[in-house]
Amino acid sequence: MAIQHPSPALRAPASSRPYPMAHPGYGKRSAPDQQPRSGHDFMLLPLRERSIAGFIDHLPDGAAMDVKGLARQLPLYGQQAVGSALKALSVAGHLRRVRCLVSGAGGQVRWVFRTFWSRTARDNEWWAHLVGAEREQSAIAGPVGVEPSVADPSVAEPSAVEPVVVRPVTPVVPRQRAQEPAPPASDDRSPAYAALARLGRVDARLALSAADCAVLEPLAAEWFARGVDADYLVRALAAGLPAQVDSPVGFVRRRLTDKIPP
Fold first, then answer.
1. Could you please report the per-residue DSSP string of 99-146?
2. Is the pLDDT of residue 11 over 60?
3. What is the rounded average pLDDT of the residues 4-11?
4. Partners of 21 in the beta sheet?
5. How many C-beta atoms surround the C-beta of residue 244 within 10 A?
6. Rounded to an integer, what distance in angstroms lies between the CA atom of residue 217 and that of residue 224?
7. Domains of the chain: which residue ranges?
8. Using one digit for the tens of pLDDT, what is the confidence trace for 177-198?
9. pLDDT more than 90, % of the chain
């Protein structure tokens, strides 16, 4: 008589929702000649900037980079925090928003923004060369007296209409905030969701979006059902990371499945 070994049905793998994309030609644009990802990326940045930088670094090219859009995706930070972090990341040499004059449909002339991102921090001289090349490629001879009219659809900040000025100064690392408190947790977030949202503050390579946290929440909740707390879960997921984590949501999903306590 054959002995049957019952096994649970295979679950459908958790997957992240697609990241919001900007209009074609806008959004994130990866700068050339970057170093491979490693555990030392963004280590000189303050905790908030490090977490947001890790999240942006994993966004695909063309992803929306406006403040409102990023704040909707990030589980711990609002618009004010995201806006301040983007400015700090620009100072640190990781980001440049370039204002270009281009032609649109019907011969209309408009100003748009290109947002460049570099995992490897660059000085102003390097960015000036890249910005100059970008402006040369997109520059057109518009009619005299044309004023900026339409900004990049992915940019929602009122101050974004000001041109980017690259000054030949030494890059400055943003000021470290001693004992930076964690953002207040929302009452409607489960302990599992809150623990997943903390991962990017522990290691930038594990920065998850709000959608990632939501889709992984049931897997993390099973850990809590087996008697662990948030600190144990975070330590287990963030311990012994490889040098490169290409997909934070995929990596965390695998660990939630493989390392779940008995």
1. EEEEE-GGG-EEEEEEEEE-SS---HHHHHHHHHHHHHHH---PPTT-
2. no
3. 42
4. 63
5. 11
6. 11
7. 21-171, 184-262
8. 545 555 555 557 899 999 999 9
9. 54
